[in-house]
Design a protein that fits this description.
heterodimer; A: 569 residues; alpha/beta; 17 helices; 20 strands; 29% helix; B: 389 residues; alpha+beta; 2 domains
């Protein structure tokens, strides 16, 4: 495809071209979009590429009044024989030069549309090692004399799941942004590429996934194919989606090696802790692809602090009670189940027993009791023992034995918020310890080199407004800051990026911005993003993201196909 | 590399004084507007159109109707010529000092297609006006100055910049000494004449290429009152040729001297124009000036484009239109229907305006304004041009 010339560079006294930016004029009817790549001739036979940031339309009308007067002083039906001279000028950012020449682009040189190959080069997509598809981009949509260019976009997987860079943050408003779908698309791409790889060489790095289902049955059937039943034409939708997956080099199969964990529940009572029906749970347990999880005092008392994740504990009394319990002081070393535990705590509530103890006041014990009692008695997942034959397990035990290419989905959708935090905190603590090598040598422990955790609604666990000493925040920060080298990778999603702790977002190598609202983009987190892109973020379509990754020379506007796994509405 | 004045000095054996160089246009020196020279003694005769009327004619219904039908506008080509003149030096011949004036002439023609303006053709000519004394022999000025021009164009400086002078024009020094005559003005007039000649050439080319026709008129900015050139009265054949070139050409002037607005009785009547209602035209007057224009007769009329209370003076918003009379028209006048259609088309050019960009917005027609802007945009910058000398 030849390069179509679409305009020429303008460098004026007031608006010069610079090392970074340039402006060119185009015909006022030429359709270009932000993020489109243009090619510009430069000195020494080099070529610079720029990415379109903004497009403005001007005419020679000196003021609003000129136009008013040109309609016979405000006659709305006045017609004109000559169109007012107008043009579009496009502001673009230089992204690279073929000979690394970065002096400003020269006045009046030609600006052209780029070919697919050139776009690949310009964006730095042509030379990506360890490619991992993260979507596709479409360019020149609706541009005259030019076919739409569709290109798969690959990331260097070392820059998203480590060791070069790790963690992904996806932000966008509920529903419209399709955050879960995008995370699942990436996870699917990772699983595909590692499954392919593992056949070739065994010792290469390996990956496993731990997912949290936080909404309905969203992630509770990811090993089943999408039936597209909510589409107008399911057959057509399926074919189109599958074609897209194939074009991106992905298989058209859903996730493999999936294991589900439902909270332990009692059918037909209010203690039913999942959105799956008892029948479905039973079936899946029989098929050996699901288990029910419980918490046993003996093993899980160490995680009691996690129940206090969202409780403001500025005087650290709760913390001292927890450490009192964990270290087995008083009667706490003789306890074997939750019931006894509560009784012992209750004892502490009476004034007489605690008078000897000067450190922790009875009021604190009462507060502790109130919180813990409500959490534990409310739910049957806190139990005395597990029956492995019935498909019951502890999360800690299950996660410890995670193998490469496995996907573990933990259903916490129906749990109350404090218990969600408890399960989440427990899981990442286990994964963190696992990758630190704490369980090395135990039976069946053979962790993959990297474990990817996906959690939606990160704001519940790592909000910037969280108490500083929140154990769960500390855990998330640990993962964010040290997970890259340990092989613990966090894929997190939230509605508002600005509400997430700076140290968490700051440590993410990849950011995906989905549809958001204008209040959000006005916040400081978005300062570095050009204004037009900010506005674009407020009108991105479902299945469209703006991606930021150190490998890319600029932000990319990418799309991704519909989910391949079963959807519940 | 030798500058132009050094070459001229050497070639014509004069003495250059290297005086201050400046642009006449920027310092508002004598404004010579030959297009609209108000002092011409034009004798108005009887009506110049077939329907004799004494009252202004309302063209709004016709203009609206044309707009409604959505026919292509009659006016397709727009021509504008302009010049920038610069005092570049003083040169002495035989101890007499004469100004040297250089000019950039731009003649542009734009066409309009589907409401958008496109360049049709463009000339940019660089000229230099020298006193005729530069040719000491005094014979065959044309050949002498053409030879000088060629020598100038062969200079390294011009070649390096890829510039080309079209002509060195001599201006007459015979009237020197008379109090009214300023030499600068003579030089400027010579350049102005050259520009008018270039405009005529452009019209002739358009005719030759069969661009003009009954549904693609040329609108020329300014008057059509071309006076005979200094080379003396041209023979009748040339005149006829020029005339036929102007079959589909109208001249529209933005400015005119209100004092020379004569009504149908032939008496000055500025009020008649001042009170011309909006979107009306005056009856067509006929005038001829045998001494000045040969046997060419013109139909002249005025059209008001903007309401009087919208403009600064009652004469703003009125344009003067001219059309050369041909063949039968000389005897019977121009067909009033044609005048009406032309006028209605001009009225429909009233929008858009260049309000805010040009102070003459009320009288300006937008396509002409664009053509003018285009021509102006093609000039070499003053600094660069003056630096040549």
């Amino acid at each position: 495809m030849a390069n179509t010339v679409i305009g020429r560079i303008v460098a004026t006294e007031k608006k010069p071209t610079t090392i970074d930016d340039f402006t060119f004029w185009t015909d006022s009817k030429l359709i270009l979009n932000p993020f489109d790549i243009v090619k510009v001739e430069h000195v020494n036979d080099s070529v610079s590429y720029g990415v379109v940031e903004d497009i403005a339309h001007i005419t020679d009308a000196a003021s609003f009044l000129t136009n008013y007067i040109s309609s016979d002083f405000g006659d709305v039906s006045a017609e004109e024989n000559t169109l007012r001279v107008g043009m579009n000028y496009v502001t673009a950012k230089v992204i690279c030069n073929t000979k690394n020449i970065y002096i400003p682009l020269q006045n009046n040189v030609k600006v052209m549309l780029a070919t697919a190959k050139e776009i690949n080069y310009a964006l730095g997509l042509d030379d990506i090692r360890n490619p991992l598809v993260c979507g596709y981009l479409e360019m020149y949509e609706g541009t005259k004399d030019c076919e739409k260019v569709t290109l798969p976009v690959n990331l260097n997987s070392k820059f998203i799941i480590g060791p070069e860079g790790a963690h992904l943050n996806i932000s966008g408003i509920s529903g419209l942004a399709a955050k879960t779908s995008y995370a699942m698309f990436l996870l699917k791409a990772i699983q595909d590429s590692y499954m392919k790889k593992s056949k070739e060489d065994e010792d290469e790095d390996s990956v496993a996934f731990v997912l949290f289902n936080v909404k309905g049955k969203d992630l509770l059937a990811i090993d089943q194919l999408n039936d597209f039943y909510d589409e107008r034409n399911p057959e057509q939708a399926r074919n189109e989606t599958h074609a897209k997956y194939r074009a991106l080099g992905l298989s058209t199969e859903p996730f493999k090696n999936v294991q589900y964990y439902y909270p332990y529940s009692i059918p037909n009572t209010r203690h039913w802790n999942t959105y799956m029906t008892p029948q479905e749970v039973e079936d899946n347990i029989k098929k050996k692809k699901a288990k029910k999880f419980k918490y046993i005092y003996k093993y899980d008392k160490d995680n009691l602090d996690l129940m206090f994740a969202n409780i403001d504990d500025s005087t650290q009394t709760m913390e001292s009670i927890i450490s009192y319990i964990m270290s087995g002081q008083g009667k706490f070393n003789q306890i074997s189940d939750w019931q006894e535990f509560l009784e012992v705590v209750k004892e502490k509530n009476s004034a007489e027993t605690t008078t000897k103890d000067k450190e922790i006041s009875v009021q604190s014990w009462r507060k502790f009791y109130r919180i813990i009692n409500k959490s534990i008695t409310d739910n049957k997942i806190f139990a005395r023992d597990i029956r492995e034959d019935e498909g019951e397990t502890r999360i800690g035990d299950a996660i410890k034995k995670i193998k490469k290419n496995e996907v573990h989905v933990i259903d916490i959708a129906k749990l109350s918020e404090d218990k969600q935090a408890y399960v989440f905190g427990d899981t990442i603590r286990t994964i963190y310890d696992l990758q630190l090598g704490q369980y090395n040598g135990e039976d069946g422990v053979a962790p993959p080199s990297r474990i990817v955790i996906f959690i939606d609604e990160l704001n519940k666990y790592a909000s910037s407004e969280m108490p500083k000493n929140s154990p769960i925040l500390r855990q998330v920060l640990d993962v964010a800051e040290r997970g890259r080298s340990l092989g613990v990778v966090l894929f997190a999603a939230e509605q508002f990026r600005s509400s997430i702790h700076d140290r968490v977002t700051g440590n993410c190598s990849t950011h995906a911005y989905g549809r958001t609202n204008s209040i959000e983009v006005a916040k400081g987190d978005y300062k570095s993003i050009p204004p037009v892109y900010k506005t674009m973020m407020t009108r991105l379509k479902q299945g469209e993201y703006i991606i930021q990754n150190p490998v890319f020379r600029s932000l990319l506007n990418i799309k991704f196909p519909k989910p391949i796994y079963k959807q519940f509405k | 590399m030798a500058k132009i004045m050094e070459i001229i000095e050497k070639q014509t054996k004069g003495k250059s004084y290297r005086t201050y160089k400046y642009s006449y246009d920027s310092i508002g020196l004598p404004s010579i507007n030959y297009d609209d020279d108000s002092n011409k003694t034009i004798k108005w005769k009887e009506s110049g159109e077939t329907n004799i009327s004494k009252n202004p004619i309302d063209l709004k219904p016709l203009a609206d109707q044309l707009q409604k039908i959505g026919d292509k506008p009659l006016l397709k080509y727009f021509l504008d010529g302009s010049r920038r003149v610069f005092k570049v030096d003083d040169i002495a011949y035989n101890n007499q000092v004469f100004p040297v004036v250089a000019g950039q002439i731009g003649i542009g023609c734009c066409s309009r297609e589907q409401k958008c303006m496109r360049k049709e053709r463009f000339y940019r000519e660089l000229v230099l006006a020298l006193p005729d004394k530069a040719n000491a022999d005094g014979w065959n000025d044309a050949a002498y100055f053409a030879a000088q021009t060629e020598k100038l164009n062969n200079s390294e400086e011009l070649k390096r910049l890829n510039l080309h002078f079209s002509a060195i024009i001599p201006y007459s020094t015979s009237k020197i000494g008379s109090s009214e005559v300023k030499l600068d003005n003579l030089a400027i007039a010579a350049i102005q004449d050259y520009m008018i000649e270039a405009e005529k050439r452009m019209v002739a080319e358009l005719v030759k290429d069969k661009r003009l026709g009954q549904d693609s008129y040329l609108l020329k900015d300014g008057s059509l009152e071309y006076k005979d050139m200094k080379s003396g009265r041209e023979d009748l054949r040339t005149l006829q040729k020029i005339k036929s070139n102007y079959h589909w050409v109208i001249g529209v002037s933005k400015s005119f001297n209100p004092a020379s607005c004569l009504d149908y009785t032939g008496k000055p009547n500025s009020n008649y124009i001042a009170n011309l209602p909006v979107l009306h035209r005056t009856p067509v007057a006929r005038y001829e000036n045998r001494e000045f224009l040969g046997d060419i007769q013109f139909g002249v009329w005025y059209i008001r484009l903007r309401d009087k209370f919208r403009t600064q003076t009652p004469f703003d918003g009125v344009v003067k239109v001219e059309k050369i009379m041909l063949d039968n028209e000389i005897d019977y006048g121009i067909d009033s229907d044609v005048i009406d259609v032309i006028s209605a088309n001009i009225i429909n050019e009233r929008n858009p305006t260049c309000y805010g960009t040009d102070r003459r917005w009320a009288n300006h027609l937008y396509p002409v304004f664009l053509t003018e802007s285009y021509v102006k945009s093609k000039y070499i910058s003053t600094e660069m041009f003056l630096h040549l000398f």
